[in-house]
Design brief:
Blueprint: E1 2-3, H1 11-20, E2 30-34, H2 38-49, E3 53-57, E4 73-75, H3 85-106, E5 116-117, E6 121-124, H4 130-140, E7 148-150, E8 162-165, E9 169-171, H5 173-184, E10 188-191, H6 200-205, E11 208-211, H7 217-220, E12 228-239, E13 247-249, E14 253-255, E15 262-266, H8 280-293, E16 302-313, E17 319-322, E18 329-333, H9 339-354, E19 359-360, H10 362-365
Helix pairs in contact: 2-5, 2-9, 3-9
Length: 374
Amino acid sequence: MRRLSCCHRPMSSLEKDSHALLNIAQPSSTVAVIGAGIAGSSVALALCKLGVQVHLYDSASGPAAGASGNWVGAFHPHITRGDSPLSQLTRLGFDYTLRALEDLTDKGLLETGVDWDTPGHLQTVPAEEADRMRETLELLNFPHTLVRWAQPNELLPTALGGLYFPQGGWVKPARWVEANLQACGELLHTHYNSKVTDITPLQAQYSAVVVCVAENALELAPIPGARANTVKGQISKLRCPVKPGVVLSGESYAIAPAADDWLVLGATYERPVLHMNPTAEADALNMGRFKAAFPELPLGEFLDHRCAVRSVWHDRLPAIGPVPNRPGLFMSTGFGSRGLLWAALGGAIVAGHCMGQPLESKLLGKITPRAAKA
């Protein structure tokens, strides 16, 4: 078992370990992956790169039917005062996401500016929290290439300051899923319209099974004491008369890809989930938050809305790795609203386990599928 040193830039160690797996891949191995969204497609690609045959199962008629079917999503690191494990993991995931998108672009499967881009990300902060957040940045002393403080009205007309991530970006998740599956090549076998309610038959048929669904993960692979909540999120699409130029989050979440004429606002955070129908009230909430944060930026006509669910584990960290006491069973789930940060990292971690050469570190140990602490 190899150990990973998770320091300020652990990415290179992970990549070296991932490439080392190429020397031990077993082309005759077959792995079943349940879920054809960004999590499942990333696991599938990581395994196929190692010569593993992958059988991908999904209850929908095609890929990216859930939250991965949203029109666009954001990715950027997360900052906390004590540089929590969550923050450290988001930096690691951010590096993996960038490299995954760059690799698919180099292969001609994605196009920068159309399918994804890194125009920068502004996370606005309420005025009463600004001084403490600025102090946090000074304490952490991260390079400005990662994050810096943006003054009110510096990047956009707003009275709010915030965290500015120069490399923060957006991606169209469905296009990322499609590119992942294309990159898998002939080693990938898809099984759509195939709802899995019992993994026992798959375990008998394949050398390993990976659960990558947002909902029902713990029903397929129970872990005593584990807790996960399902949260509904609604996004709103509007015509975009003026482009913000950067991705926005914090007091208002907004993404306007430069090549398109629309802007997406959201997402709401609704629980319990009573139904999956979009509502006018949720659209009004999304638009109201934007107008409060950026009163001088106009919004165009309403175009569409979409709802999806997110799975949030008890500690808000993802669940990636082997299921306890279930040999040959793995997970890459519990992404919450940060699926675009966890997916590529999750693929690399699960592939290492499936090949019998897991990456190991104290940091990665915190996201192994787990029970809630008593």
